[in-house]
Write a structure and sequence with these properties.
alpha/beta; Rossmann fold; eight-stranded mixed sheet
């Protein structure tokens, strides 16, 4: 796999100049900031003046990333918050810690994710991909929603991917059904981004979208206008996600497709825009139109807006972690 440092960043400066605002005084929480798009988003929002809460599992890697961010943006405020998305208790504890420190939250960026992991259960009994990528972000948003309601311009920015496209949701992916979700697939299937582990990934990435549009609809029903639900996708970006998937047998790290990837900096454009675009409207979907490119405002596909898909996601997540109170 090519070296990420060898990929030219083409669009980041333009995105910052054209689609961001002064973030001074804003409080932003981002999951998954040890590398890749989350790291870049944290760095760039801090440069714009935001206080950035870094939600990661406590590890040497997360501590090293914090030190590097502090060195890259001297004088910025970064606050580490321990949050393991594979553990509902940890997610709830992270939300309690944020609530004890802050009286409001302006942006929650649900960025962290895993890709094409083997079929295995978390401590809570759910598929590791579904819990990490979908159910725990729902839970975190639910727990932090009272703080978002206190913002003048609250935002929930969910990070999906091109893997959102595919089959409709099925309720079985949202339940404690690990062991009955198809297994890990063959090497040939995984090399072609097919088979059951990639279907679970697709379900989780579609869920980022159906959660966004389900949240948008419920905000409108409740007459809540100071919180926006926003969606982003990175295109094809070379980040640690591909490497971690390859390490567990899900992806060939040397796949020809990755030769066309853009940098992690350009992969972060869409979530940065969601977090900081002064003209963002609830329901906006940002990302490149092709595999790579500038983060533009996109039309969501019908699959993302389908009422049954939205219902299956919302009902499955609430069954797992409780009712979302507005």
């Amino acid at each position: 796999m090519q070296n990420p440092t060898e990929i030219e960043t083409k669009y980041l400066n333009r995105l910052i100049a054209e689609h961001t605002q002064d973030m001074a005084g804003k409080i932003v929480a981002i999951t998954g900031t040890t590398s890749g798009t989350g790291y870049v988003c944290a760095r760039e929002l801090a440069k714009l003046g935001a206080t950035v809460l870094l939600l990661n599992r406590d590890s040497p890697r997360s501590r090293s990333a914090l030190e590097t961010l502090q060195a890259e943006v001297p004088g910025a405020t970064f606050e580490p918050i321990t949050c393991d998305l594979q553990n509902f208790d940890s997610v709830r504890a992270a939300a309690r810690e944020i609530s004890s420190r802050r009286d409001r939250l302006d942006v929650l960026c649900n960025n962290a994710g895993v890709m094409a992991f083997p079929e295995q259960a978390t401590k809570d009994g759910y598929d590791v991909q579904m819990q990490t990528n979908s159910i725990s972000p729902f839970l975190l948003t639910k727990e932090l929603f009272p703080l978002l309601r206190r913002s003048v311009d609250g935002r929930v920015v969910n990070h999906s991917s091109a893997a959102r496209l595919g089959a409709d949701h099925h309720p079985r992916y949202f339940g404690k059904n690990t062991g009955n979700l198809g297994g890990d697939g063959t090497a040939e299937e995984n090399a072609q981004f097919g088979g059951p582990r990639w279907e679970r990934y697709h379900q989780s990435k579609l869920a980022n979208c159906t959660f966004t549009y389900g949240l948008k609809a419920r905000l409108e029903e409740q007459g809540i206008t100071n919180v926006k639900a926003l969606l982003a996708h990175p295109g094809l970006a070379l980040t640690g996600l591909a490497g971690s998937s390859a390490a567990t047998g899900g992806m060939d790290a040397e796949h020809e497709l990755m030769k066309s990837a853009q940098s992690a900096e350009d992969g972060a454009l869409a979530i940065i825009r969601g977090c900081a675009d002064p003209n963002a409207v609830s329901g906006d979907f940002y990302g490149p139109r092709e595999w790579t490119g500038m983060a533009e405002r996109l039309e969501p596909e019908a699959l993302l807006l389908d009422r049954d898909n939205i219902r299956i996601n919302w009902e499955g997540c609430e069954a797992a972690v409780g009712s979302f109170q507005f």
